[in-house]
Amino acid sequence: MKTVQPYRAAVTSFSSATASSSISQHQQAGFEYDSGEYILSIASSHHDASAASNTCVASALSNKSIAIYDSKSGQVINRIEKAHDGPISQVTFFPCEYGLGGNAHQSSNHPPLLISASQDGTVKVFDLRTNSSSSAIATKMALPNEQALCVSLGYGGTLAAVGTSKARVSFLDLRYSSGINPTGAMMGSYVDAHTEEVTQVKFQSVSNASGQAETVLATASEDGLLSVYDPSQPSEDAALLSTLNIGAPLRYIGFFGPNNEGICALTGNETMSVWHWDSAQKVSDVGGMGLRGLLSDAVSKSGFSADGSAVEYLVGCTWTNANCDQETQQSPSDSKALHLLAGNSEGDGYLFRMDADQITPLRHLKGGHRGCIRDFCWIDNGIGGQRLVTGGEDARLCEWDLSGTSSALLMPNNHKMGSGKVKQGKRDDTSKKKGKKKFGSPY
After folding, report:
1. Cα(33)–Cα(205) distance, integer angstroms
2. Per residue in 350-386, pLDDT tens?
3. Whole-angstrom Cα distance, residue 342 to residue 188?
4. What is the Cα–Cα distance from 397 to 57, expressed in whole angstroms?
């Protein structure tokens, strides 16, 4: 396990108190970030290789604004103030194949459309080709007396699924009818799947038994149920493919496997389970309630956190090639695996590879955050690989080069957020061991 420091970090906001002389003596210790805005959700436009060179990252802040960063320069290229009247639940970019309508132009190298869901009951589509917060709203869709807690785009961005506070999954039509803006018309809702708040919705392209690609939708809720649908079917009953009883309030879900035949579920109890979603069969509890102890033990065996309390919470899981070992000659498809990101309240992050019979700690993310990590995404690194981006409660957006090469920590002064020091990133190769911990039945 190696320790890496951030390739680059942007401070999204500073406390107004930093201007005070009484605070200045503590700035080097990081106190200037303590009252900054939380990063609630981040998203990358890195959907495929063709868009990799134009990747940007969107961050939703607790002051209800959205900042858009260019992944190459680290600079803010757009900022939408007062994007919503309530906390922003989630942001996501439209896929590159999404059409912009007959009258639209595509002169910008950056993806032009972003969708956001908010607890104010609205879902908004923003046109990022304008720098005006008011004119940036391309489409605004209001839900009837309920909060929008999550959103996902399917079918090339033409359909949005929105999870709500009243146990509904609502569908919005984002096709163009005329002009250059999507319609946003309500197409219907799934109302029988859940009995409590819907916390996650996720469209995913999967391969069926014939090897053909099809789209499914997974929904997860505070009621502990995870349901998978075929949204092409005309009714909710006909669309339901399987229901998984996770047994605890769900916080994060993600598909994995060569054909996306598996799904992982993270709960508010900080547990993780993996399933074969089509058969609704649980493959593993991944340590059950003792998962954090297993993860901390694996980290400790790698030479870090001798007190065994490294991991306090789980952030999310992803099926990807993390590019941690660039010296191997594996192809990207051969080296893909299920990875889990976890962290602690001190701001440390830990990336684990979750194999069938073992947990392998890969990277200790150190020196980037000073508070809990809230979300993550992946961006292109410019040489055919990826970098990890994390957003936290310390107002920081950190970019990590998992290959562990030396790099700079940048805090760009690019949108009136104050000046920042430039620190030199370091690589720690003192520990070469990889701690491994078995966790039950393979999948």
Report:
1. 40
2. 999 999 888 999 999 998 898 999 999 998 877 777 8
3. 36
4. 10
What pLDDT score was predicted for residue 110?
52
Q: How confident is the model at residue 404 (pLDDT cuts 50, 70, 90)?
A: low
* Distant-in-sequence, close-in-space partners of 189: CB < 8 Å, separation ≥ 6: 168, 169, 170, 171
Is the distance from CB of 316 to CB of 305 less than 8 angstroms? no
SS3 200: strand
What is the CB neighbour count within 10 angstroms for residue 255?
Answer: 22
Encoded tokens for 117? 């869901």
Predicted TM-score of the model (pTM): 0.82
Q: What region, left, alpha or beta, does residue 149 occupy, with left being phi > 0 and alpha being psi -120 to 50 degrees?
A: alpha
* Contact call for residues 392 and 369 (beta carbons, < 8 A): yes
Distances (CA, A) of 159 to 4, 115, 162, 185, 197: 39, 11, 10, 10, 21
CA triplet 52, 58, 63: central angle to 5 degrees? 175
Q: Which amino acid is at 286?
A: V
Query: How far lies 110's CA from each of 44, 54, 130, 160, in Å?
Result: 11, 6, 12, 21
With CA atoms as reference, report the closest residue to 343 among 263, 269, 270: 270
Is residue 198 exposed (0-12), middle (13-18) or buried (19+ Cβ within 10 Å)? buried
